[in-house]
Design goal:
The chain is an all-alpha fold and about 190 residues long. Among the domains are: about 35 residues; about 60 residues, no CATH class. It is about 50% helix and about 0% strand. Helix 1 runs antiparallel to helix 2.
């Protein structure tokens, strides 16, 4: 399915209210065909809703590859990796989805050659789960280990002591933590 898909049919283009009115119309003794024409709902839809007691909107299009639980598990894993300062790129998310589907033997249409889930799958997955996956920010191991509650509290305690003792004006405060020597590995695009 292309990413800029636009609906081209009128299938399932009726509302629940129209369906209720049509069924009430049929129960008053009118034919299903007459109700179909009057309320612009297909004959077979009305017949199935009337006699088989099928409810709800019709299911149009292909379903998702993973169940709701599987998608929640993948979402939780992506968020966990991000919280551990190891964000995943879109390519890595697609690879993880393919490997997960293969491991669980879930039928899919993912590429067997590239061993990746498709870009369209990724777009739908991100929209369904309100995620945003971008190039992760490079973070050094020193920054990760130094960023904890105790270290941050110590830093701000020391900063408060120095600021109250020395009374620096704001224009005399500089950020001097950049040394020009990198300890950070670039995660790539």
């Amino acid at each position: 399915m292309p990413r800029d898909w636009k609906r081209t049919t009128q299938r399932g283009n009726w509302t629940e209210e129209q369906l209720k009115q049509a069924i009430a119309f049929i129960e008053k003794g009118n034919s299903i065909r007459a109700a179909s024409k009057q309320f612009n709902i297909p004959f077979t839809t009305l017949r199935d809703r009337r006699f088989k007691k099928i409810e709800g909107r019709p299911k149009l299009g292909r379903g998702t590859v993973f169940s709701k639980d599987d998608e929640e598990l993948l979402t939780a894993r992506i968020k966990l990796m991000d919280n551990l300062f190891y964000g995943l790129t879109p390519l890595q998310v697609r690879r993880v989805a393919y490997e997960y589907a293969e491991l669980k033997k879930i039928p899919n249409t993912f590429s067997k050659d590239s061993r990746l889930a498709g870009k369209d799958w990724l777009d739908g997955f991100l929209k369904r789960n309100a995620l945003s996956v971008r190039k992760p920010e490079a973070t050094s191991i020193n920054r990760i280990t130094g960023f904890n509650r105790t270290e941050v509290a110590n830093f701000f305690g020391n900063l408060g002591d120095v600021m109250s003792k020395e009374k620096f004006p704001p224009d005399c405060i500089y950020n001097m933590d950049e040394t020009g020597v990198t300890t950070v590995q670039d995660p790539g695009k």
